[in-house]
Specification:
The complex is a heterodimer of chains A (112) and B (114).
Chain A (H helix, E strand, L loop, with lengths): L4 E3 L2 E5 L4 E6 L4 E9 L6 E6 L5 E4 L2 E5 L5 E6 L8 E9 L6 E3 L3 E6 L1
Parallel strand pairs in A: 2-11
Antiparallel strand pairs in A: 1-3, 3-8, 4-5, 4-9, 6-7, 7-8, 9-10, 9-11
Chain B lengths: L4 E3 L2 E4 L5 E6 L6 E8 L3 E9 L2 E5 L6 E5 L5 E5 L8 E8 L9 E2 L3 E5 L1
Classes of the chains: A mainly beta (112), B mainly beta (114).
Chain lengths: 112, 114
């Protein structure tokens, strides 16, 4: 089936550092969604992207819809302890049933 | 505006039993989709319901089933439980079909099969 490759799988950073993660695929998507999941909770939508090349910010978070429609990245600037969690990308395929496909997640750990 | 509500939050079952999980979507949302989340497999799509009709289905055995009611509330059922069914089951709602719009998740129902 369709696969989204999300990297890195985990990150260990110092508070205040910037973070970058991305999702890539061989398939073409018409939507990219980025979610954050805290332990014991459901994923919370952070940013939604609908156009190739689109760059959208939400506070310290910035995400971009790749120009090829096959990738997206999420950046977090000046990380703080509450940024800890698992970040998921989700892409909606441009063909077929257009269901959402999720990446495997990036686990972010921050050392104070 | 209330979010997506899932019940129960936690439950423990034994092999061979069956389980029913419930999801109430955000008011006005007509689409409900279900996902299974395990540490090794990530988020796996189970199925989506829109206006009481199953619109999409993932690659899960027939032991996994669901339905949606006229008020958009949804239930999923797993029969003849296996140890591997232990997971966090997430429900998500969206305004339109899964084909459009953004997905909003509930907190999940954590199922443990002993």
């Amino acid at each position: 089936g369709q696969q989204l490759n999300q990297s890195p799988q985990s990150m260990f950073i110092q508070e205040g550092e910037d973070v970058s993660m991305n999702c890539t695929s061989s398939s073409i998507f018409n939507t990219w969604l980025w979610y954050k999941q805290d332990p014991g909770e459901g994923p919370v939508l952070l940013i939604a992207l609908y156009k190739a090349g689109e760059l959208t910010s939400n506070g310290r978070l910035t995400a971009q819809f790749g120009i090829t429609r096959k990738d997206s990245f999420l950046n977090i600037s000046a990380s703080i302890p509450s940024d800890v969690g698992i970040y998921f990308c989700a892409g909606r395929l441009i063909q077929g049933a257009q269901k959402l496909v999720f990446g495997q997640g990036t686990r972010l750990t921050i050392n104070p | 505006k209330a979010g997506v509500t899932q019940t129960p939050r936690y439950l423990i079952k034994t092999r061979g039993q069956q389980v029913t999980l419930s999801c109430s979507p955000i008011s006005g949302h007509r689409s409900v989709s279900w996902y299974q989340q395990t540490p090794g497999q990530g988020l796996q799509f189970l199925f989506e319901y829109f206006s009481e009709t199953q619109r999409n289905k993932g690659n899960f055995p027939g032991r996994f089933s669901g339905r949606q009611f006229s008020n958009s509330r949804s239930e999923m059922n797993v029969s003849t439980l296996e140890l591997g069914d232990s997971a966090l089951y997430l429900c998500a709602s969206s305004l339109g079909s899964l084909n459009t719009g953004e997905l909003f998740f509930g907190e999940g129902s954590r199922l443990t099969v002993l």
